[in-house]
Design goal:
Arc Repressor Mutant, subunit A, Jelly Rolls, four-stranded antiparallel beta sheet, six-stranded antiparallel beta sheet, 22% strand, alpha+beta
Length: 274
């Protein structure tokens, strides 16, 4: 990220609901002081730390990954620490952002959203930037869709952060517990109760943490272990299936083929380490 990138677009006349008017990325080292923008803005801090100050929120420290919202015609200042930070940004306007504020999906008093799932937001910002580069009506419409998804994704992570504080449970520990028990049968209701949650809450929070619901995560761990066994041992296919907690070798072979595009025997032939 040696060179800053920036794109600015004039919104379409018909795009009154939501229009993206600019996008960029840079490694920022300098402060922005008492600036007012004519539009809304969102800044994604991927790496680094610093501070943001507005009249509504006061001075807030932030550490990446995090994002913050800026509001039209409101003075704001922000700056990275001495090492700088890696940021992506977007400018947007229209009636939808005002609805976001009215519904408290974005809020002037709480503009900073700490992120625990950077990949999703980085992907959305990247797609938005690519859409603006396209410079067509379709590209601008798609950029608006990406911005809408950024708003929703950030709001969900903000809600999940509140859930984490209220529940008092460390999802990283829960994920590691399931990883250790992945070869055992999973009773989701019992597993959730063990951690003081309903199955629905556990499933939602687990998916936000890992990108997969618990049983899909368990299956991924099992299949990864199966690949390790196939590549490093000469155990029979049915033995490998049993070792990862699947008693039916035909079911194992079918699931393995669906995920890997080859049978367990074909995988072993490709990757066996003799």
């Amino acid at each position: 990220m040696k060179n800053a990138e920036a794109i600015y677009r004039t919104p379409l006349g018909a795009a009154g609901g939501l229009a993206v008017t600019g996008s960029g990325r840079q490694h920022a080292r300098h402060a922005v002081t008492e600036r007012k923008l004519p539009s809304f803005a969102v800044v994604l801090v991927e790496r680094g730390q610093g501070w943001l100050e507005t009249a509504a929120s006061g001075r807030l420290s932030l550490t990446g990954p995090a994002l913050f919202w800026l509001f039209p015609n409101r003075a704001h200042s922000y700056a990275p620490d001495e090492g700088g930070w890696d940021e992506r940004w977007a400018l947007f306007e229209g009636s939808f952002p005002r609805d976001f504020v009215r519904l408290r999906i974005i809020a002037e008093h709480h503009p900073v959203v700490p992120l625990h799932h950077l990949d999703e937001l980085a992907r959305l910002f990247g797609k938005l930037h690519a859409d603006l580069l396209d410079d067509t009506n379709l590209g601008q419409a798609s950029a608006a869709l990406m911005l809408h998804q950024i708003v929703i994704a950030a709001a969900r992570q903000a809600i999940d952060a509140v859930d984490r504080r209220q529940a008092g449970a460390d999802m990283a520990d829960i994920v590691e517990t399931l990883r250790r028990r992945a070869m055992q049968p999973l009773d989701l209701a019992a597993f959730a109760a063990e951690h003081g949650m309903s199955p629905a809450t556990l499933r939602r929070r687990f998916t936000l943490e890992t990108g997969l619901p618990p049983k899909a995560f368990q299956l991924r761990v099992r299949m990864d272990h199966a690949k390790q066994l196939l590549a490093t041992t000469d155990e029979k296919i049915e033995t490998v299936a049993a070792m990862i907690g699947l008693d039916d070798p035909f079911y194992f072979s079918r699931i393995f083929h669906e995920r890997e595009g080859c049978s367990p025997r074909e995988f072993r032939a490709r990757y066996l380490r003799g």
